[in-house]
Amino acid sequence: MDKLLKLLENMQIWVCVVVGVLLIATLSLMFDFSTENSSKKIKNELFELSETIRHKYQTKPDYWGLSKTSVIEIAPQNMTINNKVVSSTGREFIVGRNEHGDIIMPSQRNFMITLANLNKKTCLDIATLDLDNEKHLSLHKIILRSEEKTIDFEWGKENNLPITKENAKKYCSNKNSISWVFE
User: Fold this and answer.
1) Which is it for the CA torsion 110, 115, 117, 118, positive or negative?
2) Phi then psi for 117, rounded to 5 degrees?
3) Which residues share a beta bridge with 163?
């Protein structure tokens, strides 16, 4: 009888271990799936914001006056929270002349939208998003900034768009920002 009880105890331990491993595997898969979905949401919101800005300025010769603070007036209402333009994941879109959201001066015919403070996984996911839609034709370049370096990716250049997984792995580090420059 003692052997049977000991055998049952060992089986219970093994069942707990197996259930624990399955639970961890399931949660990690769910996390990867949610990260992928949030990256796609960010991409859609990014291009929605760029289209809104381009529409607002289409009758003007340039993007004069556009900045981190002025974009709040024209951004989609569902993206403005506490005087910031944010994604559905809570990340701030910084809009303006540069990655700090400074005001665009006369004759500048492009604007930048930046996501800052990205970890390596998020940088990899967002940097390598598909650019297969005609909306992306207004995209001039993407700038990846890490702690070590800044690299520009442009259509038809040495560092060509779209950004490959290999290039993203090469340049994304523990703390990154990604800027999209639109014309």
Assistant:
1) negative
2) 55, 50
3) none
Mean pLDDT of the chain, nearest integer? 84
Indicate the pTM of the whole model: 0.78
- Top-confidence residue, 8 or 172: 172
- The secondary structure of 67-136 as a DSSP string is -TTGGGGTS-GGGEETTEEB-TTSPBPEEESSTT-PPPPTT---EEEEEEEE-HHHHHHHHT----SGGG
Question: Which of 118-147 are b and which e, b meaning 16 or more Cβ less than 10 Å from the residue's Cβ?
Answer: beeebbbbbbbbebeeeebebbbbbbbbbe
The label of the residue with tokens 């996501």 reads 115
Residue 105 burial (CB count, 10 A): 11
Strands 176-182 and 111-118: antiparallel
